[in-house]
């Protein structure tokens, strides 16, 4: 169980166990696989553990202990700051989980019953709450969730629980049930003494860097007004790779454009998914980044398609807290289980750092994509989740207008105007792409580092590995930005503080690479996206020009987070970018 739990994150771990008439809490900022043998829990009658990726409160690891109430919690409570005043308690820690203990304590102080604690917690909290709440002085353990990311089973007269059903089935548990509509209350040994708490710290840097605004740094970000010739129909500029204009000033991207946003009859999708529907349990997997399109896609799958999905999130170290909070909001509001697969975030960020250092020594617009190579294992772990859950159908919410030919174009690959999907496989295309990338890497040997295998294998799973039972929601629903934003507003979807756009705001990398593209080439992926909207007849050229003028502005907060997360100096990095010769 501990080994499988590390799939969800290994940045920190914690244990609660009963031994020798007392309860012990051991917490560490390293994986549970290392903490378990150190704690020596094998003769304990009660053991509960947690292995997590970093979310809120790096300094306050789980299990969270407050007022002799101990909590293990998966999820993020997005309104925890507002709850404290409601319950008349004073916050002591950073971590959002503390408020669960405080709610339980306040409830008991007011004469409430133990069995009513779960309902009280879920009534107050917004965001995912999948929780094990231990009350040793009362001899009770409450298990409850608002999204189903909690399962209980039995074996040899013992009770086991886990965030997912898979490890329980692997153990041979019987009667595995999802904890969603009704809480489970179990008896545990009663003790009157306090907890024995042991904390182990090894990490010297924070995986969640505290944001500190520096006016001098922000002033380093430039926003030049490029004087560029642009297409008279869309907004693509003359610096777009392989662009050509006809006598009327219309670019070849417009002339060769085929609509990507014409929905097929929904009845076709209903017919496709019908064989996958299940009378009980989840019937499809939804890859879920927390971005606007995957969130809107999830809404359509639950509310319109009437499927019972579980969502899958791959955290590779560049999902921001904002993105995680939106994942938590949507999963809780729709009561949808969320399975997280987390990479070794420290290692992933070290890979980014190595490649970014290599890039800064020889800046090349065609090599910027190597900074996001680490997220391509998203496609690999879909297959893992399919095997673990026994669910084959996966439904994707990829925006059909998010086509960025220029990223490969700057490497020397002309646009394929026949391409029909955002992500396309194809052996020859990939061989050519990797060959050109290899040539660019030779200009800066720092690219040949320990991250190379991670990059290559990620590209394989994205472009070569066979995909089955794989459908796109927006093949059957027309993507319209107004409808998307209006829908997400109903879920209190969180916006970014440093931009007006809703696109890629939970992605820690986007603001940085778009800053490079705009500074050097005078456009970003916002220009290509808005141009596709023009071609689809969704907005006018004048509207698009106004939007990109705003959206291309530097996002200091996000860029600062990114460079702090990978451990590079802001001033030095931005200084290199600002000195790259411009294409205009």
From TrEMBL:
Superkingdom, natural source: Bacteria
CDD domains named in the record: Gn_AT_II
InterPro entries: GATase_2_dom (IPR017932), Ntn_hydrolases_N (IPR029055), Rossmann-like_a/b/a_fold (IPR014729)
Phylogenetic placement of the source organism: Bacteria, Pseudomonadati, Pseudomonadota, Alphaproteobacteria, Hyphomicrobiales
Domain Glutamine amidotransferase type-2: residue ranges: 1-202
Name of the protein: Glutamine amidotransferase type-2 domain-containing protein
């Amino acid at each position: 169980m501990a080994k499988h739990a590390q799939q969800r994150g290994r940045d920190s771990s914690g244990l609660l166990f009963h031994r020798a008439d007392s309860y012990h809490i051991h917490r560490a900022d390293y994986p549970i696989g290392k903490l378990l043998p150190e704690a020596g829990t094998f003769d304990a009658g009660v053991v509960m553990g947690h292995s997590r990726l970093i979310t809120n409160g790096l300094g306050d690891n789980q299990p969270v202990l407050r007022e002799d109430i101990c909590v293990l919690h998966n999820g993020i409570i997005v309104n925890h700051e507002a709850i404290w005043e409601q319950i008349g308690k004073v916050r002591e820690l950073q971590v959002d989980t503390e408020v669960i203990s405080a709610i339980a304590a306040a409830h008991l102080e007011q004469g409430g019953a133990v069995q009513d604690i779960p309902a009280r917690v879920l009534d107050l909290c917004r965001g995912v709450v999948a929780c094990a709440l231990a009350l040793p002085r009362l001899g009770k353990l409450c298990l409850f969730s608002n999204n189903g990311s909690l399962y209980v089973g039995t074996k040899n007269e013992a009770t086991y629980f886990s965030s997912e059903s898979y490890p329980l089935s692997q153990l041979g548990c019987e009667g595995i049930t999802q904890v969603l509509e009704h809480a489970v209350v179990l008896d545990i040994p009663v003790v009157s003494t306090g907890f024995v708490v042991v904390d182990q710290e090894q990490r010297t840097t924070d995986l969640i860097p505290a944001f500190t605004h520096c006016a001098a740094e922000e002033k380093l970000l430039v926003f030049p007004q490029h004087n560029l010739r642009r297409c008279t129909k869309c907004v693509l500029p003359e610096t777009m790779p392989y662009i050509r204009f006809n006598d009327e000033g219309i670019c070849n991207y417009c002339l060769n454009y085929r609509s990507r946003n014409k929905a097929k009859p929904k009845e076709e999708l209903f017919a496709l998914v019908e064989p996958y529907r299940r009378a009980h349990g989840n019937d499809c997997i939804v890859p879920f980044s927390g971005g606007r399109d995957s969130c809107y896609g999830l809404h359509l799958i639950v509310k319109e398609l009437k499927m019972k999905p579980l969502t899958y999130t791959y955290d590779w170290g560049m999902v921001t807290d904002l993105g995680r909070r939106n994942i938590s909001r949507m999963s809780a509001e729709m009561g949808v289980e969320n399975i997280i697969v987390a990479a070794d975030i420290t290692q992933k960020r070290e890979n980014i750092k190595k490649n970014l250092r290599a890039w800064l020594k020889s800046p090349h617009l065609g090599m910027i994509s190597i900074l996001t190579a680490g997220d391509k294992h998203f496609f690999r772990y879909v297959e893992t989740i399919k095997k673990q859950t026994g669910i084959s159908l996966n439904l994707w919410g990829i925006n059909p207008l998010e086509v960025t030919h220029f990223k490969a174009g700057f490497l020397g690959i002309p646009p394929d105007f026949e391409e029909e999907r955002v992500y396309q496989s194809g052996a020859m295309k990939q061989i050519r792409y990797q060959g050109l990338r290899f040539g660019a890497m030779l200009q800066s040997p720092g690219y040949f580092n320990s991250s190379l295998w991670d990059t290559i294998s990620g590209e394989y799973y994205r472009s070569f590995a066979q995909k089955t039972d794989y459908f796109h929601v927006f093949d059957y629903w027309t993507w319209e930005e107004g409808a998307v934003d209006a829908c997400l507003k109903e879920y209190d979807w969180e916006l970014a503080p440093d931009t007006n756009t809703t696109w890629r705001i939970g992605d820690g990398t986007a603001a940085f690479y778009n800053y490079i593209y705009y500074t050097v080439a005078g456009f970003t992926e916002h220009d290509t996206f808005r141009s596709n909207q023009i071609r689809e007849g969704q907005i006018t050229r004048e509207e698009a020009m106004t939007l990109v003028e705003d959206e291309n502005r530097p996002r200091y907060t996000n860029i600062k987070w990114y460079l702090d997360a990978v451990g590079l100096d802001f001033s030095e990095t931005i200084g290199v970018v600002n000195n790259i010769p411009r294409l205009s």
